[in-house]
Model the fold of this input.
Amino acid sequence: MDLSAINPVLLIASLMVAATPLLLAAIGELVVEKSGVLNLGVEGMMIVGAIAGFAAAVETGSPLMGFVAAAVAGAALSLLFAGLTQLALANQVASGLALTLFGLGLSALMGQRYVGVKPPQMARVDLPLLSDLPILGRILFSHDVVLYFGIALTAAVWAVLKFTRAGLILRAVGENHEAAHALGYKVVKIRTLAILFGGACAGLGGAYISLIRVPQWTEGMTAGIGWIALALVVFASWKPWRALLGAYLFGGVTVVQLNLQAAGVAIPVEYLAMSPYLITILVLVILSADKSSAPASLGRSFHASR
Amino acid sequence: MKLTKLLTGAAVALGLAAGGALAQDKTKVGFVYVGPVGDGGWTYEHDQARKAVVEEFGDKVETVYVENVAEGPDAERVITQMALQGADLIFTTSFGYMDPTINVAKKFPDVKFEHATGYKRAENVSTYSARFYEGRAVQGTIAGHMTESNIVGYIGSYPIPEVIRGINSAYIHAKKVNPDVEFKIVWAFTWFDPAKEADAAKVLIEQGADVILQHTDSTAPQAAAQAAGNVVTFGQASDMAEYAPFPRVSSIIDDWAPYYIARTKAVMDGTWSSVDTWDGIGPGMVGIGEISDAVPAEVKAEALALKDAMASGEYHPFTGPLKKQDGSDFLAEGETADDGTLAGMNFYVEGIEGSIPE
Amino acid sequence: MIRLEKRPQPSRAWSLATPLMAVLATMLMGGLLFAALGKPPVEAIRTIFWEPLFGEFAFYYRPQLLVKGAPLVLIAIGLSLGFRAGIWNIGAEGQYIIGALTGAGVGLAFYPMESWIIFPLMILAGAFGGWAWAMIPAVLKTRFGTNEILVSLMLVYVAEQFLASMSLGLMKNPEGFGFPGSRNLQQYDSAHNAELIAGTGMHWGVVAALIAVIFSYVLLNRHMLGYHIRLTGEAPRAARFAGVKPARLVLFCLGASGALAGLAGMFEVSGPSGQVSIDFNVGYGFTAIIVAFLGRLHPVGILLAGGLMALTYIGGDIAQGNLGLPSAAIQVFQGMLLFFLLALDMLTNFRISIGKPEVV
Done:
């Protein structure tokens, strides 16, 4: 055992990279759930984003175009979900699961030509001076632009939810759709927009995996990250900054676990892998004392009967 | 049993009905895959070999495959389906297909089955597997020379004999050329999860490894090494040539094509019999991808000499004197490990640190 | 202007017609997809829907429909009870895994003793395992008001890790040359859930699924508890006035669905699958949620929906083998089928009216 082999600076830096796809998908789903909709199709939207982004980046040679395409593709897929749950009033749990099934299949079909292809590389943001700072430079100032975007998005979502009228309306719709409707807000329209935002974010998260974190395309490459993002939203109790913290924690468990293994510490890997989920359950229990945290209308269909 | 008779009857009837003129000159070969053909690794290579069979025999064969088949009852159904549809030869390409293959084979005595990496055989069931540990010996040799930090990182999938064998073989040969070498091993507990593999590679690099060996199938570790800049890697399962000449300096390639072609030929000629094949570099089942120019010429020559010695059979990667990790004797001077020991290998050799997870 | 009007009662005619319309719409869109992939569309559709039922080898595929459909129906029946009452157990996959582990664990503990008592004990253990796993969200819900959707989902991942740990450790076959996976229970007579009549696919799990359908039908239509379940789902406030104890209902619904999922896992591991292995679970627990909704949470509907899902799986594999369709195309096809079923379901509960809304 040699714990000194673990370099905490590098550990934190790579933990941030591991956390980014989770964070992007979770922030999107957070907004969706705040509006009172539970979309279990995150995994499906992520993987479609992963291939759409990959394909666009390869064809145009620009990773940024890839991310744009991924967001569009994720949103397009989520539009299906919105149609089902908001217009046809189908059950959200079943629709979300169907979306994941559909997305996994669709991505594999789209990706047939892209196995074994190398995508164009995304340049690291290189800030002179800042990147050269000891310790902080490596942790904070030498990542790709999408990672910063994820953090900025967290801040933006937090600010919008907390300080703006739009955020207030969104929360109102999620808390009590009948009351919001009575006040004259267009529940279906607001929820559809939230679902589209969630889809776009999930698509970005998927593309982060296929373009930066791995980077390659293989079928089924998201390997369950979309599901973890769902857990993360709950863990964060629908608060953006806690989602950021949670993403680092969830992403961190894997990285730390691998670090300990490499340092020769004998750890029961399976039991460590369970821990984020057990912690999430614990958080849920603690939160249940505070009834205000979960959007009250979560998962319920809305139909204006008037 | 009634069903057995019924199925056998159906198979026979089919053979007779079609057998007259047509089926005799067209051999039908089925392939059952555990992953998608687009996984770029294990299943991809099996499908490449299937294509090689088509290439080789042209109109004389018809191949069918089903991908993403879960181990268990789904596999049993798909294998049966192929046998019913008149396949003459069926390759089942995952360890978990072992019992389903044996079950179906009992019902179709006239169909030949080939199960990859298992240990159960029957009259009409052969098993085949590759001695990947021979390739690991070559990798170990190159790794021992190339490392400057003397730390070699190893990404394992699951702690099973196949993987442990590879670690031991690589370590023994790295140690031989570089007594100071040290292995850092992480278990990903997955065969395929690109994101996790990328993390594992990064962790190893951060902890000082400048050579990464992987026993998982994606190219994610290659990309991580490339990003790090000065880390050597080896392709796994497929050549991963897109990362050559650096970081990927060589590779182990699963080359099932010669075997699949030979076995298909045997069915055509009526010479097929149940065998247990465990082939290595010699017969070409384990390919060593081109050693790139990033490797010094004398190291390359040494690695190739080792490869030739194993191909001709004059050298065995597990040759004594060797001790186990706990210090007890494994092989005496000049003794080589028998296949039974290798097949069930569940211990590290002396010098590797850490314990195998349970 | 096109508007939706809620029907006072779900339409009987539409509830029968929409599944057929959905299947037809899927055939049409699926056909286009297959044609786009360069495969003969009509042949592909025929292979998926016709071949398993009436094709040349239907004598083999029909029993397989039972094998594939039984766990789906068994789990979905349990889930439907809770779903009707607005209690959302989406962690059946985890309960299925734990039921398989406890059931197989009991069998393996007795190995190699042969006795008639072993299999009944395994059944009990399987049901108990699933029940106990479902009791975690149930108790947390009743004690602390914790959201059962999320807790049950989290426990799926925990169960998957348990499964990996068991196949690599405690339950590993000591004669398996170090490979992961337990002994094969098919080769251990006392623990083998064999076909009751050879060649029919009829094993104890299928029997249990059929019994569950009948029980659930009787419960929902003839029993006070069933009435309470329906009342709670349709009018929670009225239910409270009628004296329904929500906590008890939660414990019952989650417990029953967990036990049935556990049973399904146990029957699968001791029969068609045979062994505990890392990839033992193939998503039945999640697919069953879809089956429950496709069947409109009605016992007979679930039976039919389970059959339909099984058909697309089996037919899909045949289409892969015969026509070279990629498995991804089959997944997309299944996804489309679900979308259409869910979308058209609306017609059962709503009327589409064109023009100005009437003034009531």
User: Anything to note?
Assistant: Confidence is low (pLDDT under 50) at residues 1-23 of chain B. The radius of gyration of chain B is 22 Å.
